[in-house]
Amino acid sequence: MKLHKRKFYEIKKLLESKLGDDVISHDENGSEFLEIKKTGFWLSADSSEFTVGYGANHTHFSEDYGNLYDGIIQVFDLLTHRVKTTDFIKGHTVFRTVVEIEYPDSKCISIGETRLLFYPFWKKTKIETSVTDPILCRKEIEMEVNKIIN
Fold first, then answer.
1. Residues 45 and 31: beta-carbon distance below 8 Å
2. Distance of alpha carbon 54 from alpha carbon 41, whole angstroms
3. Which long-range contacts (CB under 8 A, 24 or more apart) does 16-25 make?
């Protein structure tokens, strides 16, 4: 079994032990998916890569890309920190969404941005920001996370 799939299963096992029925997983066309109910968080693993997502934003990680451990760290940062979502709206159309992880030192790191190509650009822009609380407490899973990373 490839390393990225093994890490996916280790994360899945940890999340199921901590969140129980809130973790939804399914297979589709050779890829495995995991999501947490009532959040934008999701993961997937296929034959070559590990994908971490929040809403429509996602990033691909793999041993081949040399960034698999960055992906695992991003998973746990998304789970244990506040996530800020900023929607840019013109009329009734959300034309841009930015998702950021908010760290305790008030520093925000963008994990992705989605945009529409066609939108009513002539209308006034309205900005709506929402913040979601951490899904898990970092201290509760620290030991398990260290095992998965190492």
1. yes
2. 4
3. 18/136, 18/140, 18/141, 19/135, 19/136
Backbone angles phi and psi of 99, in degrees to 5: -115, 130
Hey, how many other C-beta atoms are within 10 angstroms of the C-beta on 59? 16
Q: Where are the alpha helices (DSSP H) in 20-134?
A: 68-80
Hey, how many other C-beta atoms are within 10 angstroms of the C-beta on 140? Answer: 11
List, for residues 93-143, the tens digit of each pLDDT value.
Answer: 999 999 999 998 879 999 999 999 888 999 999 999 999 999 999 899 989
DSSP structure string for 63-89 = TTTT-HHHHHHHHHHHHHSEEEEEEEE
